[in-house]
Design goal:
This protein is of the alpha/beta class. It has 12 helices and 11 strands. It binds 1,4-dihydronicotinamide adenine dinucleotide. 1,4-dihydronicotinamide adenine dinucleotide binds next to helix 5 and helix 6.
Length: 351
């Protein structure tokens, strides 16, 4: 128990709600890090942790990240995160009952915390949570939800890449620019298609070779084997697969001028932002450029935005990146540091 106490004392967030779910042995942690800009938004992650306190620590850390992400995106939301720390991933009726009880917990917070799917939870799970709770986004389309957030994420990354080109080249024109997309899932495939439409010289890669071949054929792109991605010459590298791709070992081998993609936690360590900066590679901080999905879910489902309003906010991701790059240049710091400064400057209630 001391571990919980230590974590709570050290945390700078507003409130952590903790419930032990006796029937499943799961711990529910809802961390509301900040409501300065509005209700706290954040996903619900389900995971097996070595100890319950590790789940609480994860929820606390991730909720602080959401505060920065939503502030820098200029969204009228604060940051939160929920973790269901389970002894093993539940299925069937047991999973359903756990999610219903979790829905009751979130409902009891009266809208202070608003959630969507995250690691190991799906739109179908959100449909179940929504049976007991009004503050759930990203339900399945069949249940009136906004569907796959990969759409908004991809569009935001598209605008982000154009902003990076504008910063370096003075023009956002994609025609003829070599762009390498790593990971052709929900986000990467959509992004690749928009880049192809813009006339980019497209390279694609996926550990699923068939998937890569299929996308390449459809878009007229060239397939790069997964192990060759890092050393491949391309003006823009867009990581849209896994985290940790930017590391002490990989940064010196990068042959790009810009890293701008959707993957979460692209930097293996904070020092890797400095490594990119020193190498003269323009890095679009992941939590800034990949905010389109959360804007789509909260904007359309909670704020009632239409498609045009959503697109304006997704374009805003590009504008924010330009602001971050200008600040980084002015102060001679990495884009990651400048992004944090911009996020903190937006941590005031929206006008
Ligand atoms: P996804 O699971 O639909 O697609 C991932 C793709 O990457 C799959 O096709 C997989 O085969 C491929 N892949 C996995 N490891 C790879 C590797 N080492 N090299 C090449 N390809 C590899 O995931 P999704 O939704 O497209 O997300 C992509 C990334 O963007 C993830 O890191 C995710 O956390 C992040 N992200 C996604 C958001 C969304 O709205 N879907 C929002 C914000 C971030």
């Amino acid at each position: 128990m001391t571990a919980f106490e230590d974590l709570l004392r050290a945390w700078d967030g507003e409130q952590a709600v903790i419930r032990y779910d006796e029937p499943t042995g799961a711990w529910m942690f809802v961390c509301v890090h900040s409501t300065v800009r509005g209700p706290a938004g954040g996903g619900t992650r389900m995971r097996v942790y070595p100890a319950a306190a590790d789940g609480l620590a994860d929820a606390m850390r991730l909720s602080a990240g959401m505060t920065l992400k939503l502030a820098v995106a200029d969204a009228p939301f604060g940051g939160g995160k929920a973790v269901l720390a389970v002894p093993s991933l539940p299925v069937g009726a047991e999973r359903r009952r756990l999610l219903l009880r979790y829905g009751e917990l979130v409902e009891s917070l009266g809208g202070t915390f608003r959630t969507a799917a995250d690691m190991n939870t799906s739109a179908a799970d959100m449909d179940v949570v929504a049976e007991r709770c009004a503050y759930v986004y990203g339900r399945s389309e069949a249940q009136g939800g906004g569907g796959d957030s990969g759409r908004g994420t991809a569009r935001g990354v598209f605008h982000g890449i154009r902003a990076c080109l504008r910063h370096l080249e003075g023009t956002a024109e994609l025609a003829g620019r070599a762009v390498l997309v790593q990971g052709l899932g929900s986000v990467g495939a959509r992004l690749a298609s928009q880049l192809a439409e813009g006339g980019a010289n497209l390279f694609v890669s996926d550990v699923d070779g068939e998937r890569a071949a299929e996308v390449a054929q459809e878009l007229g792109a060239r397939v790069i084997p997964p192990e060759q991605v890092i050393g491949t010459d391309a003006e823009v590298f867009a990581p849209c697969a896994v985290g940790g791709v930017l590391a002490a070992e990989s940064v010196p081998r990068l042959r790009c001028r810009i890293v701008a993609g959707a993957a979460n936690n692209q930097l293996a360590t904070p020092e890797d932002a400095e490594r990119l900066h020193a190498a003269g590679i323009l890095y679009a901080p992941d939590y800034v450029i990949n905010a389109g999905g959360v804007l789509q879910l909260l904007g359309i489902e909670d704020l009632g935005w239409d498609e045009e309003t959503l697109e304006r906010h997704l374009e805003g991701i590009g504008t924010t990146l330009l602001e971050i790059f200008a600040l980084a240049d002015l102060e001679g710091v990495s884009s990651e540091r400048a992004a944090e400064q911009v996020a903190r400057s937006r941590l005031t209630p929206p006008a």
